[in-house]
Sequence to fold (143 residues):
Amino acid sequence: MQKISQPWGDLSKARRMLAAAENIAVVGLSPKKQRPSNQVARYLLTQGFRVVPINPGQEQILGLPCFPDLTTAVKQLGIRMDLVDIFRRADQVGPVVREAIAVGAGGIWMQEGVVNHEAARAAAAAGLEVIMDQCLKTIHEQL
Fold:
């Protein structure tokens, strides 16, 4: 079984996950520019990643089509989600992780302040790399 970051693994793990990522789903992406999810997604776009907004209450964010869930995004776009960046409360992470496993995502990244050990164990048991309680943008800037 893979080691789960507690709460954070080393930079080599992040480097490996981000090097393998092209398509990044941002679950809970807000249309509000001042929100961390929006700031991180905009940063990821400037770094060449394909950002896939996941927010059931929106049709478009950052000029990109928004999807209600990972399953719909994967089916409609015909792509693999290399990384799922989660901006949801810890108690809402479990269903997102189960869906990420079901669609064959490559990794789970729970943003700063988001810690769900049960979901992290489930993801790791399914073979996904997991980082939690860390800001993807902040870590990427360190690499």
About this structure: Confidence is low (pLDDT under 50) at residues 1-6.
